[in-house]
Design a protein that fits this description.
Order of helices and strands: EHEHHEEEEEHEHEHEHHHHHEEEEHEEHH
Distance between the termini: 25 Å
Number of helices: 14
Strand order of the largest sheet: 8-14-9-10-11-12-13
Number of domains: 3
Low-confidence stretches: none
Bound molecules: flavin-adenine dinucleotide
CATH superfamily of the largest domain: FAD/NAD(P)-binding domain
Structural class: alpha/beta
Shape: globular
Helix content: 25-40%
Strand content: 15-25%
CATH class of the largest domain: Alpha Beta
Largest sheet: 7 strands, mixed
């Protein structure tokens, strides 16, 4: 399959998750006649990894007014929920299922397709895997697994997230090892009193706890992560000024931490939670990261990353209540430990664990191990697929500290020979190394709008 009308202004979008769908929505609404071709291996656009779960227990981590995909209308998602009868009344404390968010994005995409038709812009969905992308002087060429060749003027890499478990050396055949914490049906074989180890203590772990609750699991759950931090509950914070925005004095992560701590104390004594200053500076953290040296970026990752993510990515109240309930029943424990290896021993899985600060390892037996250790942003870890091909042939190069891929501030790709591409862009999680805070719904909505202006 291919597009033959090469004279048209084609935009090729690789990846039809949230990022690809939001870019398409913006392009369809823009009154410029062109053809948009969007590629994804999934059958539903707008869902991607985050919003493909079908289970209502896997919720968003914020309230609808903070999750609108329309930067000009913060109530867009709330209005959609109400008009599509996904909730009975407007509620400021509602944390909707992620499944609804995927449906909302797809609905807005379909509406934008109708708008596009009025000025001659069309969208074609190619349900196929992109295997290569060539950035040539006068065009871009996309090749797909099913022998498709597609020509375009511009291409956008919106290939999103990859689970860490897919790149760690954990892809073993051990029975009892669970790589998909959202696959409740797949977990139904777990016995009610099974001993569970969850690796990772972030919001994916909270999803895993809900999945286990759905199958009526009632056994012990041990959670390990390198830092041992437990998610904080999301409490809607009052507005607080972005105190980092105009602060030119901050040069190091240590200085940033010191001023953040002092603002959090100020907020607490003013009767606000510590959450208010944290929420206020999210976009400025991106600016600081962008300007920081590699040495300071490394310092942030080693010393502050876990703390920052733990305070920013807070868990929906229901998730926090579930953690507390399981802890009170003595069923849930957390530990700062590193997983060294997993081995099958009779019908059990023996996990070799090294506790933080311990000098020796310890072997502990479990019936099942759920891998919930988050996302991998290092493109050099991917051993196959498009990411690997693009790094290998130099079309893209790894971003700062090997995180994501290298682009300029606007998302224009910089290749292996340091050349700024005329036609190739990236959007969403691949920009992690350049901007750090680039994966939330609000951040992707803003990036998609800005990129649409550029292409
Ligand atoms: C479990 C989870 C929950 C989250 N919850 C929230 C939340 O509550 N609030 C919030 O603000 N943010 C949340 N996020 C973060 C955020 O919304 C995501 O970062 C965002 O969805 C990223 O979208 P994306 O389209 O860039 O990536 P993805 O969702 O990963 O989509 C990329 C798409 O590209 C396709 N693709 C990749 N490679 C190819 C290829 N070679 N050929 C064809 N197709 C390809 C994939 O199939 C996929 O559908 C969550 C993230 C996760 C993982």
């Amino acid at each position: 399959m291919e597009n033959t009308d090469k004279d048209q202004s084609h935009v090729l979008i690789i990846g039809g998750g949230l990022s690809g769908a939001l870019l398409a929505i913006n392009l369809l609404r823009k009154k410029v006649k062109r053809k948009i071709i969007i590629f994804d291996t999934r059958t539903q656009l707008g869902h991607g990894l985050a919003y493909s779960t079908n289970h209502l227990v896997h919720t968003l981590n914020n309230i609808p007014s903070k999750l609108s995909i329309d930067p000009n209308n913060s109530e867009d998602f709330s209005e959609w929920l109400l008009s599509n009868k996904k909730c009975e009344r407007e509620s400021k404390e509602l944390y909707p299922p992620r499944k609804y968010f995927g449906e909302y994005v797809l609905c807005r995409l379909n509406e934008a397709i109708d708008v596009g038709k009025t000025h001659g812009t069309t969208l074609t969905f190619v349900n196929d895997e992109v295997t290569n992308l060539q950035d040539l002087p006068n065009q871009v060429i996309v090749s797909t697994k099913n022998n498709g060749t597609w020509f375009g003027n511009v291409a956008v890499i919106a290939t999103g997230l990859s689970q860490k478990s897919k790149t760690d050396n954990l892809q073993s055949e051990l029975s009892g090892l669970i790589f998909d914490p959202w696959d409740i049906e797949g977990m139904r074989e777990i016995k009610e009193n099974a001993r569970i180890l969850i690796v990772g203590s972030g919001l994916t772990m909270v999803d895993a706890l809900f999945s286990l609750k759905e199958i009526n699991h009632n056994g012990s759950i041990h959670v390990i992560s390198r830092h041992g931090l437990i998610p904080h509950p999301r409490i809607q914070s009052n507005p607080w000024p972005d105190f980092l925005k105009e602060n030119k004095a901050i040069k190091t992560p240590r200085q940033a931490l010191s001023i953040i701590r002092s603002e959090c104390k100020k907020a607490q004594s003013a009767g606000f939670g510590w959450q208010a200053p944290i929420d206020a500076i999210r976009s400025s953290i991106g600016e600081l990261w962008y300007k920081a040296s590699d040495a300071h970026k490394r310092q942030f990752i080693h010393h502050l990353r876990a703390l920052w993510e733990n305070h920013l990515h807070r868990c929906p109240p229901a998730g926090y209540d579930l953690i507390k309930d399981l802890q009170e029943k003595g069923l849930l424990t957390f530990e700062a430990s590193k997983l060294i290896s997993l081995n099958k021993r009779n019908s059990e899985i023996s996990a070799r664990i090294k506790r933080k600060c311990a000098t020796s390892t310890q072997d502990v037996e479990f019936d099942h191990v759920i891998i919930a250790c988050g996302m991998d942003y290092d493109w050099t870890h991917f051993k196959n697929g498009l990411s690997n091909t693009l790094i290998f042939n130099g079309t893209v190069r790894p971003g700062p500290l090997n995180i994501g891929i290298m682009t300029n501030a606007a998302g224009r790709i910089i290749d292996k020979s340091n050349k700024l591409s005329e036609r190739l862009f990236a959007l969403g999680p691949p920009l992690r190394g350049v901007w750090w805070e680039c994966t939330s719904i609000s951040s992707i909505a803003m990036q998609a709008k800005a990129l649409c202006e550029l292409i």
